[in-house]
């Protein structure tokens, strides 16, 4: 899917963006025909409203989009996007009403409002195109939109067509587009190369488990992204109930997000040495499934008692994080649809993250606010370390009791990173119901914030 601005020389309908508390002042500045038409139609400037203004021949000579009240705009991430579908098909040019510092966000929302998942059913929505305002870096906004579309598509594709093999192919396609190097360790070769937990989690599936390793860039700080690629999660022998299994095609949302983030980085040609690691597996049920009570030995040598086979994401991430840490990068970032506890804590709209580095954490949170990609910092709470120490092994993959599930999962992962700065994102990767700029389905979370924070975080 191509989400792009209209060429700057395209004939466009002037679009006035008008807030509800600024409507009277705007009306007073308009010619009689516009003022009378807008007033007679009862346009109030409320968010999500729009009005076409016809000329003498009935053709539109202008359009007005409601921007709402300032106090209410905080409730909606992409305000202008809510009005896009109310406009007639055509090409538009914003002629006022949005502050320059908000234009990148609002124009990104406009592009994302045009996203459609069309792999299985055509959706012939009539386009509302936008000419990029002169103050907006159009190429960067288009890059952010394209990366988001990639992430959404990968998550939206069901496991029947997005298993470990297809996820590997998606990574290969991205690598080919940006001249990145890629290698993949598959099946029993995982054991031979000391990735035992990736192999164990994925060995019961028809498609072999694998570790995808993509590298790009020859100089600059080293950045490693690790994404959970569980292409479907039945829960294993601790089988999920049907209601909990319905969305498990999105359990590779961490992988989809790091691929989208990698695309942003490579498209911007950031001066970094980028590495992307994706353990791609399906957590299935068969005679050789791993079992509750098993004790696994990780790549790092730490032993893990399995108290729930449905806590598998942290197992495959642990081996990948160990490999990442062996390279001693300047920064490791992991992204995973890891715990339901994170959703209970902050809901689907916020991406919680964990980081011991206060400066890095502050930069991430600030970038999230700027990029309409909100984050919420959670604690690596040291007193809970004992909850992941079962006694019979070094670590417990699913502490009993149910308390602090996102925190204990993050503490588990941190045990496998000792030599590098580290931030972990426990994302949802899904939009439960449609919102402006965010269609129902797969969603990028945290990637724009990370991308915007990288120059400061890595001293670029």
UniProtKB/TrEMBL annotation:
GO terms for molecular function: manganese ion binding; metalloaminopeptidase activity. Coiled coil: none annotated. Residues 308-315 form the Cytosol aminopeptidase domain. One of its GO terms (biological process) is proteolysis. It holds the Pfam family Peptidase_M17. One of its GO terms (cellular component) is cytoplasm. Gene3D superfamilies: Leucine Aminopeptidase, subunit E, domain 1, Zn peptidases. Its EC number is 3.4.11.1. It comes from the Bacteria. Keywords: Aminopeptidase, Hydrolase, Manganese, Protease. PANTHER family: LEUCINE AMINOPEPTIDASE-RELATED, PEPTIDASE B. Belongs to the peptidase M17 family. This is Cytosol aminopeptidase.
């Amino acid at each position: 899917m191509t989400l792009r601005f209209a060429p700057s020389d395209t004939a466009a309908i002037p679009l006035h963006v008008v807030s509800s508390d600024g409507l009277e002042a705007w009306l007073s500045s308009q010619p009689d025909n516009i003022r009378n038409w807008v007033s007679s139609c009862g346009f109030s400037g409320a968010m999500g409203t729009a009005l076409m203004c016809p000329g003498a021949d009935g053709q539109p000579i202008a359009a007005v989009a409601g921007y709402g009240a300032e106090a209410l705009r905080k409730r909606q991430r992409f305000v202008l996007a809510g009005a896009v579908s109310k406009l007639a098909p055509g090409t538009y040019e914003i002629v006022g009403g949005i502050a320059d510092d908000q234009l990148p966000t609002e124009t990104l929302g406009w592009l994302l409002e045009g996203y459609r998942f069309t792999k299985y059913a055509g959706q012939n929505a009539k386009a509302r195109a936008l000419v990029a305002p002169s103050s907006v870096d159009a190429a960067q906004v288009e890059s952010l939109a394209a990366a988001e579309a990639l992430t959404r598509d990968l998550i939206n594709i069901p496991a029947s067509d997005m298993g470990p093999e297809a996820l590997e192919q998606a990574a290969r396609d991205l690598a080919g587009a940006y001249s990145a190097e890629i290698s993949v360790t598959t099946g029993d070769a995982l054991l031979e190369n000391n990735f035992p937990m990736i192999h164990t989690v994925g060995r019961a599936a028809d498609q072999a488990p694998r570790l995808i390793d993509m590298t790009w860039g020859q100089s600059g700080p080293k950045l490693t992204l690790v994404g959970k690629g569980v292409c479907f999660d039945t829960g294993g022998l601790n089988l999920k109930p049907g209601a909990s299994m319905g969305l498990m095609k999105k359990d590779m949302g961490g992988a989809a997000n790091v691929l989208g983030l990698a695309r942003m980085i490579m498209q911007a040609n950031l001066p970094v040495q980028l590495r992307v690691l994706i353990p791609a597996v399906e957590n299935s049920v068969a005679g050789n499934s791993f079992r509750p009570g098993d004790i696994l030995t990780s790549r790092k040598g730490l032993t893990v008692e399995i108290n729930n086979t449905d806590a598998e994401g942290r197992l495959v991430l642990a081996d990948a994080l160990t490999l990442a840490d062996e390279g001693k990068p300047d920064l490791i970032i992991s992204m995973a649809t890891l715990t339901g506890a994170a959703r209970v804590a902050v809901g689907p709209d916020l991406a919680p993250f964990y980081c011991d580095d206060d400066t890095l954490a502050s930069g991430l949170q600030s970038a999230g606010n700027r990029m309409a990609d909100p984050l919420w910092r959670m604690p690596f709470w040291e007193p809970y370390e004992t909850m992941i120490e079962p006694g019979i092994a070094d670590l417990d993959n699913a502490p009993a009791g149910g308390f602090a599930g996102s925190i204990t999962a993050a503490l588990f992962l941190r045990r496998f990173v000792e030599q590098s700065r580290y931030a972990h994102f426990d994302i949802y990767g899904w939009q439960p119901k449609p919102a402006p700029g965010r269609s129902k389905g797969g969603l990028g979370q945290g990637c724009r914030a990370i991308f915007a924070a990288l120059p400061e975080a890595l001293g670029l």
